[in-house]
Amino acid sequence: MFSRSVSFVVAGAAGAATLTAASAPSPLYPVYQRLWGFSAFVLTVVFAVYVFALLAALLTVGSLSDRVGRRPVASGALVLLALGMVLFAIAGGTGALVVARIVQGVAVGAATGTTTAMILDSAPNPRFGSVVSSAVPSLGIVIGAVLAGALVEFAPLPRQLVFWILTAVYLVLAALVWLIPERARPEPTSRESLWRSLRPSAGLPSAVRPVFFALIPSMAATWALAGLYLSLGSSVLGAVLDVHSHFVVGVVLGVFFAAGAAGTVVSTVTPPRWREWLGYGTLALGVLVTMAAMLLTTLPLYVAGSAVAGLGFGAGFRFAVNALGEAAPDAQRGEVFATMYIVSYLAFSVPALAAGLAAERFGLEPTAVAYGALEVALILIAAVAGIIRAGRQIGGNELPTVVDEAELPCRTS
């Protein structure tokens, strides 16, 4: 078995690699459109079926690791993800692409809550655990977008190589996660109760509910913007900003998510009372700058706005993960994070699907600008919800929902 520190590294790698699959196809979408002649709306449908499959997995197996252990769920999900990559590599049309996205979505849905719980279980302290668990989604998406863009532009087998590489990575990680010690052995589970747990459901422990519901606007604001970048982002860069290099497209998409990873780190050195507002402020500013860049057709301004918005994405998501991680009982973390991802991925997919439909009727640039305006409205709602929550805490003489992690006792295995 791995030591605690090695287990933490492997869990973080598994968490990042899982989300690498989410962005790897993004630089290829314009290629698929040219090859198979589908519209922007069909593109967002291909994007959305992945998310709906992911949500189905979260609703059924999202909390399974709380019952049978982290290792079998994480390993099985990584093997299934490898299968999804093979299907991408051999895809020969839109139908095959949809099937690959469905398999990928089920695998990512099974893995996300489990790998997040594994990271927190093996973390040396709560502060480091919350930073890494918040940063790995953005880091994984950066790797996927940049790697795919580079291979499509410069490598042989431009539509297949990235998926063969990821297939090998997932199979190696599927073996390595078996060497991570379980935090606590689950109670023996009868076959009947196990099958009952697989019925579609989502739940939250009562202690977590006030924190969770107060954070829904924040989760919606951050993930709705990420959905736009991964669904229509490459099309916006090509059609609106006249970028035709797949590598540059991958890099620009990566800027947003790389800044997201940086935002999680920046939030750790920000005073606790300002962490939530760091996320909202930079997210809103970045969106406004990217809207101006699209109207002015200025790529450098768009990149700058993406970086600022990404900083807000990372800071906002880390705030939510930290709040829920501290509120959740250790034995129910898988369930809590699975529910968190259900809300996040609904925000990730539904607005993007609507944007794809709108782009067919109104055009890509007006749709992207209107999407930005919707994003700013979501941020304002999240900010108002934060102000109301803070007022209730002060009025009721309650402790703040999120405290400085340095003041929290370190959980040990």
Automatic annotation (TrEMBL):
It comes from the Bacteria. GO terms for cellular component: plasma membrane. It is found in: Cell membrane. The keyword Transcription regulation does not apply. GO terms for molecular function: transmembrane transporter activity. PROSITE patterns: MFS. It comes from Kribbella voronezhensis. It is a multi-pass membrane protein. Residues 1-390 form the Major facilitator superfamily (MFS) profile domain. Coiled coil: none annotated. This is Putative MFS family arabinose efflux permease. The chain crosses the membrane at residues 38-61, 73-92, 98-120, 132-155, 161-181, 202-226, 246-265, 277-296, 302-324, 336-357, 369-388.
